[in-house]
Amino acid sequence: KSKSSLNLTYKDDTYFFRSPSTILKLTINNIQGVLILQESIGGKTYSLKSSSLPKIPLLLRVELENGHSETVKILP
């Protein structure tokens, strides 16, 4: 398994994303595959309020400029 270059932390109702590589895009789907949020980032850090998301299991996918992508299951 390749080492992830994405760091995801959660504090005070906020998810924080950090990466040494530029974060190109964030996509959030529910577990049925329905798109909840898609955002172009273009930076190395990003934050997202948990309270702005539906309270259901979600799949969060982050695409990085270095070609890596990371998918994480979250429950806001």
The average pLDDT is 92
| Shape assignment | globular
What is the N-to-C succession of helices and strands?
Answer: EEEEE
The amount of beta strand, in percent, is over 45%
The major β-sheet equals: 5 strands, antiparallel
Give a written overview of the molecule:
It is a single chain. Strands 1, 2, 3, 4 and 5 form a five-stranded antiparallel β-sheet that branches. Strand 2 and strand 3 (35-49) form a beta hairpin. The chain has no helices and five strands. The chain is globular, with a radius of gyration of 12 Å. With 76 residues, the protein is mainly β.
Feature tags:
mainly beta; single chain; globular; five-stranded antiparallel β-sheet; 5 strands; 76 residues
Q: What's the helix and strand layout?
A:
Elements: E1 7-11, E2 14-30, E3 35-49, E4 58-64, E5 69-74
Antiparallel strand pairs: 1-2, 2-3, 2-4, 4-5
Task: Report a brief summary of the structure.
It is built from no helices and 5 strands. The protein has 76 residues and is an all-beta fold.
